[in-house]
Amino acid sequence: MQSSLARPFSGSPSASPLSTVEYCRFVTSASESARQRFAQVESHVVHGETPAAGFSITVALPLSYGKRRRRRYPLLVLADGEDIVGSAIEMQRVLASTREAREGILVCHDDPWLSPADAAAQAARIVQIVAWCRERFRVQQREVTFFDQGRARACAQALRGHAPAVIDHWITAAQRLPEATPQGSTIPSLNHGILSLWGTGRDYGSEAAPLCHPLVSGALQKCRPLLKRLRREALPGGSAEGRNILHSSIMDR
């Protein structure tokens, strides 16, 4: 993403009271936006053999990482995903919060992706990233996943031939299309891959207790006197319109 420079307002003085004020509009990168939006998302620099060989990455740790100090987590390497890193972090954490999938560590390579002709050099960077994460974080053994999409195709081929093997699992998007279009397959492919590899077997919504559950029905039974009193106070005349208003007020909708 590009940022626009500060420039004076071009409108006439009569059109706006801000006509003499310079303004600035900043558009951050997707990785920087993710670091601002989410907790435990940080930027790091992986140093190469020379200062010029270093490159930056974004690491998103699970929300339970600081509390469960003995737990190890699977690692997801997001290749050529700087534009979708925020959506990937959010989707991964939603699946963990609904207990559909295990929590995991996500790492994204921030620097411009190299051309397909430099696939071997890019694969070497991925090897460095995985080794760097293993040294600093509690990465689970045989649980490193590479998300293969877009310009990462050639890099993935180079990694598959690497010995010893660095990547344990692969998630491949069928095609590289904008995420916002109906045909976009990047995030759905990542979602399906995480559920396939890290899934717990729980279905979405299974943690919600049905109304017929003994605990739920008992709690509702105890709340009936309070609900009746609230209804008498909020329903003058007992009209149908008043019942709808009561429902809207209680549900805050």
Structure description:
This protein has 253 residues and is of the alpha/beta class. Helix content is 37%, strand content 18%. The chain is built from seven helices and eight strands; from the N terminus they run E-E-H-E-E-E-H-E-H-E-H-E-H-H-H. The protein has helices at residues 30-37, 85-97, 119-136, 153-160, 186-198, 214-234, 240-251, and strands at 4-8, 22-25, 41-46, 55-60, 73-78, 105-109, 139-148, 169-172. The strands form two sheets. It has a six-stranded mixed sheet, with helices on both faces. Strands 1-2 form a two-stranded antiparallel sheet. Helix 2 (85-97) links the parallel strand 5 and strand 6. The protein is elongated.
What are the low-pLDDT stretches, counting only 5+ consecutive residues below 50? 1-21, 246-253
Number of helices: 7
Question: Which percent range describes the beta-strand content?
Answer: 15-25%
Encode the helix/strand succession as letters: EEHEEEHEHEHEHHH
Rg to the nearest angstrom? 25 Å
Task: Measure the end-to-end span.
Answer: 37 Å
Count of β-strands: 8
- Helix/strand-derived category reads alpha/beta
Mean pLDDT across all amino acids: 76
Name the overall outline.
elongated
Largest sheet: 6 strands, mixed
Strand order of the largest sheet: 3-4-6-5-7-8
Helix content: 25-40%
